[in-house]
Amino acid sequence: MNRPILVMYFKICGFLGAWTRSKRPQSPLNDADWPANLAIGGGLHYEGHTPGGDSRSLTSERLSMARRKKIYEGKAKTLYEGPEPGTIVQYFKDDATAFNAEKHDIIEGKGVLNNILSEFFMLGLGQIGVPTHFLKRLNMREQLVRSCEIVPLEIIVRNYAAGTLSKRLGIDEGTQLPRPIVEYCYKDDALGDPLVSEEHIAAFGWASQQDMDDILSLALRVNDFLSGVFLAVGIRLVDFKIEIGRVYEGDFQRLVVADEISPDSCRLWDIKTGEKLDKDVFRRDLGSLTDAYSEVARRLGVMPNNPPTPGKPTLVN
Ligand code: 5GP
Q1: In testing the pocket of ligand 1, which one of 117, 241, 281 has its CB within 8 Å of the most ligand atoms?
Q2: How far, in Å, is the centroid of ligand 1 from the Cα of 280?
């Protein structure tokens, strides 16, 4: 390439880099806190996915990660004690489960995509003033979050009929609901997370009336935000599930959006074709889950540079 063409090439690269950075919600913490190859402005490099994070050689950081204390292992995530009191490291696994873990596969790269997508949504919510537990992404599989007490409820918001609502009420999947419907399920795997009413929640003391008012308001704000973000990239937000945590600040408690927001916990349909881009692809054997989640990440502009290669799922049981 001759010199003027090279100069032009670098100018275009510089412009595109600046434009992409301007489109991404920024971490509340300084970019300088990030490892060089993971800084937001430096591009997202997917370089493998070993437990503990990116592909750096076995550094003292990795060794200390290996020694840290596991707090909880769930179906899709593992929680470790964070570096500061009141913080937790949330590690996204490649495990995909459905039907209360009766169906279980390892989907290579799913954890990486969910980590990046959840970061994107939590940062966006923070920018519009919706409090979340998210502090910063640490590497391709882990994020630092505020430790909180999870309200034992799954909060489900539905815009279109699908899944258990369609089954329960005999409404065709895809029917637009007259308004967003918010449902509550009691978080208990052994019971299959049963649907509960506000009467149950009050009677059993899972949340106060004030909490429930705040939870409803948070759920609807999250719905407005996510519906708009997805609509802008040609995706219909059919429904989703969030979890809410209590953060204590002195004598006061604050409710924050916790856990994760990702295609694992949303139903996402392409607006034009109706193609499913969420965990139903796995639940209903509709194709490659990695392809579906990658498509969501690509449209939102958060696809890692070297995306996870869809490997053959490993059947675990
Ligand atoms: P449904 O009640 O129709 O099965 O689910 C409604 C919405 O909540 C769907 O977007 C579904 O992905 C999400 N959802 C319900 N339960 C769970 C759960 O236990 N884990 C996750 N990740 N999402 C859930």
Answers
A1: 241
A2: 10
| Residue ranges of domains in the chain, CATH in brackets | 150-300 (3.30.470.20)
Residues in CB range of 128: below 8 A, 6 or more apart:
221, 225
Q: What type of residue is 145? A: V
pLDDT tens string, the chain, 317 residues long: the values are 445 554 454 444 344 334 333 444 433 322 223 232 222 222 222 222 333 344 443 444 454 566 789 999 999 999 999 999 999 999 999 999 999 889 999 999 999 999 999 999 999 999 999 999 999 999 999 999 999 999 999 999 999 999 999 999 999 999 999 999 999 999 999 999 999 999 999 999 999 999 999 999 999 999 999 999 999 999 999 999 999 999 998 889 999 999 999 999 999 999 999 999 999 999 999 999 999 999 999 999 998 776 666 555 545 44
Ligand 1, atom 24: closest residue by C-alpha: 265
SS3 of residue 110 by DSSP: helix
3-state secondary structure labels for all residues of 245-267: EEEEECCEEEEEEECCCCCCCEE
Instruction: Choose the residue to mutate in 99, 156, 284 for probing ligand 1, maximizing ligand atoms within 8 Å of C-beta.
Output: 156
CA nearest ligand 1 atom 16, residue? 241
Ligand 1 centroid distance, CA of 249 (Å): 30
